[in-house]
């Protein structure tokens, strides 16, 4: 998926395409998580769409629910959804920033000219 450290730096146009792909995947992860939250609040708490959308967005963003939950099912759903949202949001952030982080490290490696990492040296003893 990413170029090896022995390869040259990816051209900007290709990097932009890679970043767009990763952005779309991250948006898909967030949108899917949001849809799960909306449907869960609508199903378990009988919330209207806009209220469910707001509650799901607030939990997905790490702020917590807006409305007081009334049912046991809704409370259980919200607890699992909060854990899922935290992991999903961190995962989506990782997907989004992975190309930038990789490019930074790759460029740093090229500029440092460190070849010791690319080819491990062979130790020989002086007694041979």
Structure description:
The structure is a single chain. The protein has helices at about 10-45, 50-60, 70-110. The protein has about 130 residues and is an all-alpha fold. It has a single domain, classed as Helix Hairpins (Orthogonal Bundle), CATH 1.10.287. The two termini are about 45 Å apart.
Number of strands: 0
The number of helices is 3
List segments where confidence is low: pLDDT < 50 over at least 5 consecutive residues: 115-126
Strand content: under 5%
- The span between the termini is 43 Å
Assembly state of the chains shown: single chain
Level-1 CATH class name:
Mainly Alpha
Major beta sheet summary: none
The total number of structural domains is: 1
Query: How is the CATH topology named?
Result: Helix Hairpins
pLDDT averaged residue by residue: 83
Class based on secondary structure composition and strand pairing? mainly alpha
The CATH architecture assignment turns out to be Orthogonal Bundle
| H/E element order | HHH
Shape: elongated
Helix coverage percent of residues?
55-70%
Radius of gyration: 23 Å
């Amino acid at each position: 998926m990413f170029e090896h450290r022995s390869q040259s730096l990816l051209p900007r146009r290709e990097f932009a395409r890679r970043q767009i792909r990763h952005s779309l995947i991250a948006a898909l992860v967030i949108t899917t998580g949001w849809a799960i939250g909306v449907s869960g609040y609508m199903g378990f708490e009988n919330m209207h769409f806009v209220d469910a959308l707001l509650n799901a967005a607030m939990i997905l963003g790490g702020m917590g629910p807006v409305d007081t939950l009334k049912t046991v099912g809704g409370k259980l759903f919200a607890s699992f959804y909060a854990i899922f949202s935290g992991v999903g949001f961190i995962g989506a952030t990782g997907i989004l920033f992975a190309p930038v982080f990789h490019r930074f490290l790759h460029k740093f490696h090229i500029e440092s000219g460190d070849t010791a990492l690319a080819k491990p040296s062979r130790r020989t003893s002086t007694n041979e």
